[in-house]
Amino acid sequence: MTADTTAPRRRPDEASFAALYREHSLGLTRLAFLMLGDRESAQDVVQEAFLGLYKRWPSLRDPTKALSYARSSVLNRCRSVLRKRRLPFFPTPELFAFSAESEALLDESRREVLKALHNLPPRQREALILRYFLDLSEAETATTMNITRGTAKSTVSRALTALSHHLEPPQ
Amino acid sequence: MTHPLESLLRETLTTTAQSITTPPPLPTPTHRRTLPRLSLSFPHPLTAALISAALIATVFQVVKPAPLPTEAATSPPPPYQLTAYLCVSTSSQPSCAGKNTTPAQRQAIADLLTSLPEVHSFHYESQPEAYTRFHTLFPHTPTLLSGLRPGDIPDSFRIRTTPTAIPYLTTALTPLPGIDTLVPDPTPQPPT
């Protein structure tokens, strides 16, 4: 025990962490919101992700990759939340896409898109959101989702096909 | 290629995302958990006592210590130091049982240290002294200091001894009640 308590530890660089939070917490909350479809879960996920990031901050080797790390962390936590929602006794909160608020905010065709998006498997939704909301390149999408570039490409393409099937059911 | 679906999707996502206008709050805790939280990568939030002990022990090697009051130092003081941190109420050590070291226990430790020939000299640092020194060591971290109270930094006996005597002293001191942790300093101290 004495060994690890006496080992010198680097202390978190508070300023750079605060800067990351200031610049990207809103964007990351939006990302989580699109993934999860409800505001409270999205905020929880981002808050937890930043706490986790703070914990790892001193051992982060490349500070330029902090944002990409934060994104992956948010997505991973979103996956856990979505997984939990499939369990019994874990009620899914009312999703934005089906709420009265979205009726006021979005026109009919966009609401259909949003509903269809929530019917996609999480990975496909993730790929679409990264590609078309964050405007990440294929390579960046792949890194963030921790998959190969080829898989990212095919996931996006399959997701688009599935989305169009959801929107226009085959006759 | 820009498919009509792609641009529809892009617009939908952007419009939907804009319904979120505020990021989640990330408040600084105001209660005394500030100190353990700082060292979140410890397997268990050990205690304020242990962590501050580690911080002090680490920095103590960098900052030249103030001259220790020694008991008639005839030969040059041995370079090695062993620090016995005493119990505080926030400690998680089972031997501490969440209580501060009593004055009687402290006296017993001091008596034993006086009687051991391996101990060259020792110095008692009280909780207010440790608290003050902590403040002078970390003046640039107001978040850390704002959550800190005088009782959070444990008092300690700082013992000057030879490296060969450290295992023996550790064995001799461990059974005493009121000792939280014994921390040997791994690097030689400059002679005072």
Give a written overview of the molecule.
The complex is a heterodimer of chains A (171) and B (192). Chain A has helices spanning 2-6, 14-36, 39-56, 66-85, 100-105, 108-119, 122-133, 138-145, 149-167. Chain A is mainly alpha-helical and 171 residues long. In chain A, helix 3 crosses helix 4 (66-85) and helix 8 packs across helix 9 (149-167). Chain B is α+β, with helices and mostly antiparallel strands and 192 residues long. Chain B has a domain at 83-185: 2-Layer Sandwich (Alpha-Beta Plaits), CATH 3.30.70. Chain B has 7 helices and 4 strands. The longest helix of chain B is centred in the first third of the chain and has 15 residues, at 48-62. At the A-B interface, helix 1, helix 2, helix 3, helix 5 and helix 6 of A face helix 1, helix 3 and strand 4 of B.
What layout of secondary structure does this protein have?
The complex is a heterodimer of chains A (171) and B (192).
Chain A: H1 2-6, H2 14-36, H3 39-56, H4 66-85, H5 100-105, H6 108-119, H7 122-133, H8 138-145, H9 149-167
Helix pairs in contact in A: 2-3, 2-4, 3-4, 7-9, 8-9
Chain B: H1 4-17, H2 34-38, H3 48-62, E1 80-86, H4 103-115, E2 121-125, H5 127-137, H6 142-146, E3 156-161, H7 166-173, E4 179-184
Antiparallel strand pairs in B: 1-3, 1-4, 2-3
List keywords for this structure.
heterodimer; A: 171 residues; mainly alpha; 9 helices; 72% helix; globular; disordered N terminus; B: 192 residues; alpha+beta; Alpha-Beta Plaits; four-stranded antiparallel sheet; elongated
